[in-house]
Amino acid sequence: MVKIFFYDLVIQFLDASHLKHQTFYEKVKTDSEADFLFISLTNYEPFFERLKTESSFVNKKIVLYNLTEPISFGAAKSFLEKCIRFGINSKNVLFHSTNHFLDKFNCLHKGLSITDHSIKSGLYTGFVPYNERFLKYSFINNSIRTPRALVLNELFGRKINFNQSYVSCNGDLCYGDRNIQKYPNITHNRKYFQSHDYDLCYDKTVLENDLTFQHVYKNSFFNFTIETFSEFGMDNGGFNSHLTEKTIRNFAHKIPFLLLISSEEQIKIIENLGFVLFNDIFDFKIDLNNKESTVKKYVDIIEKFSEMKSIEVKRLIYTKEFWDRIEHNFYQYLYYKNLDIENIYKHILSNKYENKNELLLNTNEEDMDGLVSIISSQI
To answer: Strand pairing partners for 95?
Structure first.
């Protein structure tokens, strides 16, 4: 039985994290008897006060967690450096943001963390057979961050016919429409692209509205995916790679997709997980030195799909090149989904995992081009 102690535990953390419904661990009453010490990002000073009187903690696994958001580069590095000053081995410091349904990836593969809101993603609802699908493609944008804004602005400027497809342009609770207002083609078309069939999601994305998107995803032959952390170069050469349900649901619902993400290095990391992407089929590469060209090439492919008939898209998906990858990705997804999280924790306790914090220690925040970066998790 793995023993875990929580400092300043927020009860919602257990409900949202991968620990929910697990029986392999027990919450112990004192930190001295625990294998893993979970410390909240919002209140970690009590832990450091405790370190002053308890030297044995240098051999425990220290987990910094945050309830609602991924942990920033600066916060992760600051916490790690402080732990090291107290004599804790950097390898024993782990980072975990909540809502990680597929966090099993994180301690198995270098440089990647995955966020998946298990309810919002709809991964548990199965997939619709291809003979029942009716959308050529979907391009869903819940939160208009810069890369999505650039693509949408270019897309809307071309006056493309979106018949038999689904393109949305929504603000959200945190971002509102601040990026929408910067781009004239989005501003002039936003009324039409408020998710087509309801308006509330334009102002903010909430769970009830997000569930509507599941019907869209599952009935699409193809998907255009722009990841949450897709700002060009944001992943620091692959180190701070981060995936969300936007990519994972394509694997789960057997949807081929074109992925726009922070860099080609992050593409390689996903492929190292055993997944096969479709970017190469379209000769699509992310060029950090030419963002405009990257955006236009992405929109070129959307336009190509828009000009195709539904039956033509369906035939394309059934070609051997596409179908072999679709099936492979689905079973690879099931492999990770069914991994035993208990064995992951035991793997960490065995000290056979790689120290992913060395690069973190040697990277300066100013090297991140001023972008907020996400440190990859290990649990």
So the answer is: 64
Q: Which two tokens stand for residue 68?
A: 């609602």
N-terminal to C-terminal alpha carbon distance within the chain:
17
What whole-number distance in Å separates Cα of residue 172 and Cα of residue 143? Answer: 6
Fold of 2-98+340-368: Rossmann fold (3.40.50)
Q: Which amino acid is at 281?
A: I
Cβ atoms of 88 and 63 within 8 Å: the answer is no
Higher pLDDT, 246 or 5: 5
- pLDDT tens column, 279-334: 999 999 999 899 999 999 999 999 999 999 999 999 999 999 999 999 999 998 88
- The third-level CATH classification (topology) of the domain covering 119-337 is Rossmann fold (3.40.50)
Q: What is the pTM of this model?
A: 0.74
CA 170 to mean position of chain CA atoms: 18
The DSSP symbol for 64 reads E
Question: Which residues make beta-bridge pairs with 113?
Answer: 242
Q: Find where tokens 């998907």 sit.
A: 223
Segment (H or E) for 220: none
Check if the beta carbon of residue 61 is closer than 8 Å to that of residue 344: no
CB 113 within 8 A of CB 107: no
Q: In the predicted model, is pLDDT for residue 156 greater than 80?
A: yes
